[in-house]
Amino acid sequence: MTRLALGTAQFGGPYGVTNRAGRLSADTVQAILAQAAEHGIDTLDTAPAYGDAETLLGRAGVASWRVVTKLAAPPRDCTDIEGYVERALNASLMRLRVDRLDGLLLHQPDDLLESGGTALHRAVVRVKSMGLTHRIGVSVYAPAQLSALWPRFDLDMVQLPFNVFDTRFRDSGMIDRLALGSVTVDVRSVFLQGLLLASPTSRPSFCDGFATHWWQWDEWLAHHRSSAARAALGFALAQPNVHNVIIGVSSVRELDELVHAANDPPAALPTGLTANDVRLIDPRTWPAQ
Fold first, then answer.
1. pTM
2. Mean pLDDT, the chain, as a whole number?
């Protein structure tokens, strides 16, 4: 059974700082889904914010998949939070052409800390009780953000960034504590939006400010004769309390390469590469490319 899940941000637009494929065609999406199923992948991660990804998935047919999507923040002047959540979720279900989600995540979980946060959480719990989603949770960026939310709110799942440079959630003990609390942990950004897979000459210019980290990464790969994909995926999959590792692809070939890399991990795992500078590990801080 694979622990890979398929991210779909690339399906609806040019996601990723190294993405050159642009928006994928419906035929390409269909082919990727078919091949992913052949590889035993059964979970999709999507969101209304990913362009028309939900619509493309619905047209391709994903009723047999475990689908996790996200809930956009309610408008600031919203006075009917329950109604908003139910309408937004039903809109996603209609686009996806499914009756029920495996998971519904808050895309901007800081809203739980605002004045209407309790009502928002109650509304999400309500749609779960209605059988519209199996699990509820949050998608977070930083440990401090998660600390403020959990265990204040009951969560079934958390999606968070994790890669050879960004080990904040592991090092803080949060991944293990979530698992002890029966909260499922899925990780994203295992390739740091593709930067960890890029050749030294193809990385964006802002990477020049972190030359030491990139030199260490390139040297580790060369010394261990490992591909970047094998090392990055092996590192994420080696974490015992990580449930799913989310990968994004823009072609069937890329998918096959990543599945092969996941099934053939490196003899050694990267160590000592952690970076603490959010200007490198948090894509929200990157300059526009």
1. 0.94
2. 93
Tell me which residues of the chain have a pLDDT lower than 70.
1, 13-22, 289
* CA count, 13 A, side-chain hemisphere, 46: 27
Strand partners, 70: 105
End-to-end CA separation in angstroms for the chain: 38
pLDDT in tens, 26-53: 999 999 999 999 999 999 999 999 999 9
Structure tokens at 85: 């959540």
Question: Three-state SS for 157?
Answer: strand
**Angular region, 206: left φ>0, alpha ψ -120 to 50, beta rest:** alpha
d(CA 120, CA 168): 28
Q: Contact at 8 Å (CB) between 244 and 3? A: yes
* Separate counts of helices (H) and strands (E) for the chain: 12, 8
Residue 234 CB-density burial (10 A; 0-12 exposed, 13-18 middle, 19+ buried): buried
Go through 25-64 and write b for each residue having 16 or more CB atoms within 10 A of its CB, e for each that does not. Answer: eeebbbbbbebbeebebbbbbbbbebbbbbbbbbebebee
